[in-house]
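Lab manual, section 2.4: Encoding a predicted structure.

Procedure: take the sequence of the chain (356 residues), apply the prediction step described in section 2.3, and record the output as structure tokens. A sample record is shown.
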Amino acid sequence: MVEGVEAQKERIMKRILLLVNCIIQVIGTCGGPLVIRLYFLHGGKRVWLSCFLQTAGFPILLIPLTIFYIIRRRNRELILSNDTSKAKIFTMKLPLFLIFSVIGVLQGLDSILYANGLAWLPVSTSVLIISTQLAFTAVFAFVLVRQKFTPYSVNAVIMLILGAVILALNGSGDRTAGETQKQYVKGFVMTVAAAILFGFVLPLVELVYKKAKQPITYSLVLEIQFVVSLFGTLFGIVGMLISHDFKAIPKEAKHFKLGETIYYVVLVVNAILWQLSGLGAMGVIFCASSLMSGIMVAMSTPITEVLAVIFYKEKFQAVKGISLALSLWGFVSYFYGEFQETRKIKKDSTPQTIRT
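Recorded output:
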């Protein structure tokens, strides 16, 4: 009975943790594109700087990591009062460190692709394209972690792909002032490439979680996000050095249309929001699955669409509305399928009463 109560408490805590990470991911996923677009709209031109900012907020993870370290140290002192060894703030072992350092480089590559896309596309268009990562996440999840599919999830994948195709056909009428057809196509192709790579990374992380010989805890998830962001940032720094972005930042700040102070505020807020998005994604994978994490990105699309229209006065043509409707259709279809599957599992697991 005691074990049952403890198991129930653990399930409740994991659901709360899942909810918190979903909220964190949605905030970061919606806010990141909006703030980075603000940078480009008001005079920012450094694409590698934009790439760098998508992972550079990792130092904020030292706050929760320190809290977990203090908790571990106190628990260790209570349980092992005679143990002279000290608890470590980082518990990740070398194999996981090496794997996630490679994933961090992939994250850096994904960041530069997405930064190029946002430089040439309106926010409302780019987020609709990036939402197609759910389709790629589903495919890679099936290949890597044997994700089960239902007619509802297949329908979701098809709807999201159709939404992206419709946007591609609308390219000539969706360009911002002064933007060429070539620049629009470049932004579109790079955003699609970013969606594909992102769709691959999420199931890859889930696969590593499952295959890891080291027990995965949420504290370790924070360490994983720290390492991934660290190497993604190093990737961005190399690009910034090659393109001389560090020398250009002070000059760009002085000519920023909203002012020099606001320029640096935009950079800092941008880095924090993207870090929240990454941490939320890692946490959702830990609590649920990579496909669920991809779903949260897709769910953020309608919110970002509305915010982009409100704050940036972006056009919302009929074609874009159709694309959004297809994305929402796919989103609802997936969750309805998950709801039906959960009901079926509960029904099958409920003991049947035997009448005499």
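Check your result against the sample. Residues 1-75+90-343 form one domain.
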